TrEMBL record:
Residues 1-30 form the signal peptide. The chain crosses the membrane at residues 187-206, 218-237, 272-290, 302-322. Keywords: Disulfide bond, Endoplasmic reticulum, Magnesium, Membrane, Signal, Transmembrane, Transmembrane helix, Transport. One of its GO terms (cellular component) is oligosaccharyltransferase complex. SUPFAM superfamilies: Thioredoxin-like. Pathway: Protein modification; protein glycosylation. Pfam families: OST3_OST6. The gene is TUSC3. It comes from the Eukaryota. This is Tumor suppressor candidate 3. Belongs to the OST3/OST6 family. InterPro entries: OligosaccharylTrfase_OST3/OST6, Thioredoxin-like_sf. It is a multi-pass membrane protein. GO terms for biological process: magnesium ion transport; protein N-linked glycosylation via asparagine.
Length: 336
């Protein structure tokens, strides 16, 4: 019993030193360091954002400010290839819309340090593309304040397009941050309308003594067909969604003019459909002309064959495009 007391008394100096160290150390030293690091990162991001609405990042900046903790802010990253040698016209178009969105956020009254817009160019951060196994551009990703990005944090550009309004809606779904898009004034439409009105007014003035052409049925029919071709080819969809003109595969350089999904299209695709519809219509007009005219029989036969050829060939082409977009469609004609 005495030996136990002796050992306890002998250990008192050691216990005293341990308690003294515990009491003297500042509480939460690791937490304080973490808070200081987070504050430095936020301050740096705010400083960059005050200079440019979209912060350019290389591999080191991306890993430090986007991937590495601690982080209490969300980051929208556009992975792109804007250098001229990359010949990515879609990247330039998407970058313009992205800049509009970032400026709308930067100069809005709701701007805060909870959301930042950044860009990683392939020529400045190829290691980031490799790290994320990314093989196409442009691509928009959301990196949340907590946790890893999910599938929905990658913007479906092929299906939705890259219009600023669509990007803002996607960001609102992922971050609860509402961004009202403000576009710089564009007077090209107003100028074009003014020129058109002036042209029509001048033409009417010059022909004021003979306005028979206003009653020309062929002219009005051509104008109506132009409107129908534009609407049925998807021009209004392009205006609303803002899809890319075409898609270039960065791996093999192959350019696709027809979108592989029935939920989206390229601008070039709508132009192709417009020309196909016009060719089919021309064929139908020639068939009608061959049937109703009273000219030479041989000439009417040639017109009939040409019209029939136009309808058959271009309708087959149109049907093949339809099959390529609606997978599983069983019917085809001439062209697979």
């Amino acid at each position: 019993m005495a030996s136990v007391w002796v050992k306890s008394i002998a250990n008192l100096p050691v216990l005293s030193v341990f308690l003294l160290l515990v009491l003297c150390l500042p509480p939460g030293g690791g937490q304080k360091k973490k808070e200081n690091l987070l504050s430095e990162k936020v301050d740096q991001m705010m400083e960059w954002s005050s200079r440019r609405s979209v912060v350019r990042m290389n591999g080191d900046k991306f890993r430090r400010f986007v991937k590495a903790p601690p982080r209490n802010y969300s980051v929208i990253v556009m992975f792109t290839a804007l250098q001229p040698q990359r010949q990515c016209s879609v990247c330039r178009q998407a970058n313009e819309e992205y800049q509009v969105l970032a400026n709308s956020w930067r100069y809005s009254s709701a701007f805060s340090n909870k959301l930042f817009f950044t860009v990683v160019d392939y020529d400045e951060g190829a290691d980031v593309f490799q790290q994320l196994n990314m093989n196409s551009a442009p691509t928009f990703m959301h990196f949340p304040a907590k946790g890893k990005p999910k599938r929905a944090d990658t913007f479906d550009l092929q299906r939705i397009g890259f219009a600023s309004e669509q990007l803002a809606k996607w960001i609102a779904d992922r971050t609860d941050v509402q961004i009202r898009v403000f576009r710089p004034p564009n007077y090209s439409g107003t100028i074009a309308l003014a020129l058109l009105v002036s042209l029509v007014g001048g033409l009417l003035y010059l022909r004021r003594n003979n306005l028979e052409f206003i009653y020309n049925k062929t002219g009005w029919a051509m104008a109506a067909l132009c409107v129908v071709f534009a609407m049925t080819s998807g021009q209004m969809w392009n205006h609303i969604r803002g899809p890319p003109y075409a898609h270039k595969n960065p791996q093999n350089g192959q350019v696709s003019y027809i979108h592989g999904s029935s939920q989206a299209q390229f601008v070039a695709e709508s132009h192709i459909i417009l020309l196909l519809n016009a060719a089919i219509t021309m064929g139908m007009v020639l068939l009608n002309e061959a049937a109703t005219s009273k000219g030479d029989v041989g000439k009417r036969r040639i017109i009939c064959l040409v019209g029939l050829g136009l309808v058959v060939f271009f309708f087959s082409f149109l049907l093949s495009i339809f099959r390529s977009k609606y997978h599983g469609y069983p019917y085809s004609f001439l062209i697979k």
